[in-house]
Design brief:
The protein is built from ten helices and seven strands. Helix content is 44%, strand content 17%. The protein has a seven-stranded mixed β-sheet, sandwiched between helices. Helix 9 runs antiparallel to helix 10 (264-286). Strand 4, helix 6 (141-151) and strand 5 form a beta-alpha-beta unit. It has helices at 15-26, 30-34, 40-51, 71-78, 92-105, 141-151, 166-190, 217-227, 240-254, 264-286; strands spanning 61-65, 84-89, 109-113, 126-132, 152-164, 230-237, 294-300. It is of the alpha/beta class. It has a single domain (15-181, 199-237, 288-300), classed as Vaccinia Virus protein VP39 (Rossmann fold).
Length: 307
């Protein structure tokens, strides 16, 4: 197999290898890129997201699959929803970053490199399996749901968040393209655009190849039921906030360094949160769930029947 340095840019890798190489490359800058922190502000956001689909209670021994740098499981532990945190990711670089973040946040954690489609745990190990923005990276989503079911204890809970919906993704993608074309047209005349790098790391270019799916909510509900889960429900989130947030990120990616004011991150985040809450309180009552950008999945492994 070619190495990172001698691999031609045009080489097509299998999805799992592409995900490992890209996320290893991105691990050191992932938190800064996505504004991930482990403070009261982001902990409250993670808690609010979780409670859109799951009841508020302690969730015991929790495994997050595809945990990345730990945004979801660590912040939920800080919020008091996770009592015993465990994590896996297919990227060794992400696992290392997750463990560093957990230690810095004061959250005891075990984490290991593992494939979500073939988890290295015994049957019935965990009270809860979490995931955030993981299913759309996996070649075989149904296999991952079956593995989550297997490693859960009877009566255990599955909570997945941050998965793009098929229609919502297209709405947001259109907004990103319109924003990009507009900013390029204006910024090109005024000298506001970031200069393009002549050389980029080949692994950075894999970003376009690691997102494999968008989902219809009904599709994910059916897969969860076929895996054996009961009390399955899917909620969606981010319509106005998704369009706004991704448009802001498009500007950030295109603007030349130093152009945006120091107050920009606060403005972008606070305006996104305001729209996120408007989506949750009002817009979801008026708009079909398929139009929202992300979906959240909840399911329960049935408790053993007493004889």
């Amino acid at each position: 197999m070619p190495t990172i340095t001698d691999r031609p840019k045009t080489e097509v890798l299998d999805p799992k290898t592409a995900n490992v190489r890209y996320h290893d490359w991105e691990a050191s800058q992932y938190d800064q890129k996505w504004g991930i922190t482990f403070d009261q502000r982001v902990t409250a956001y993670a808690r609010e997201k979780f409670l859109l689909v799951a009841p508020e209670r302690p969730y015991g021994t929790v495994l997050e699959i595809g945990a990345g740098t730990g945004f979801f499981v660590i912040n939920l532990a800080l919020a008091g929803l996770v009592e015993d945190a465990h994590a896996t990711d297919i990227s060794p670089g992400m696992v290392e970053a997750c463990l560093r973040n957990a230690a810095a946040a004061g959250i005891p954690m075990t984490a290991r490199t593992a494939d979500a489609e073939a988890l290295p745990f015994e049957d019935g190990t965990f009270d809860t399996v979490l995931g955030h923005a993981v299913l759309h990276h996996l070649p075989d989503v149904e296999a991952a749901l079956a593995e989550a079911y297997r490693v859960l204890k009877p009566g255990g809970t599955l909570v997945i968040a941050g998965e793009p919906t098929r229609i919502g993704f297209r709405i947001v993608d259109t907004a990103k393209k319109v924003t990009g074309r507009t900013f390029r047209a204006v910024g090109g005349r005024l000298g506001l655009l970031r200069e393009r790098a002549e050389e980029t790391d080949p692994d950075a270019e894999l970003e376009a190849h690691v997102d494999l799916h968008e989902f219809h909510p009904r599709m994910v509900e059916r897969w969860a039921r076929e895996a054996g889960f009961a009390n399955v429900r899917v909620r969606t989130e981010e319509l106005l906030s998704g369009v706004w947030g991704w448009s802001m990120r498009t500007i950030e990616a295109m603007a030349k360094p130093g152009l945006l004011p120091r107050q920009w991150p606060y403005f972008a985040y606070s305006s996104y949160i305001s729209l996120y809450r408007l989506d949750n309180v009002l817009v979801r009552r008026l708009v079909p769930r398929d139009l929202f950008y992300n979906l959240l999945l909840y399911g329960e492994k049935p408790a053993e029947t007493l004889s």
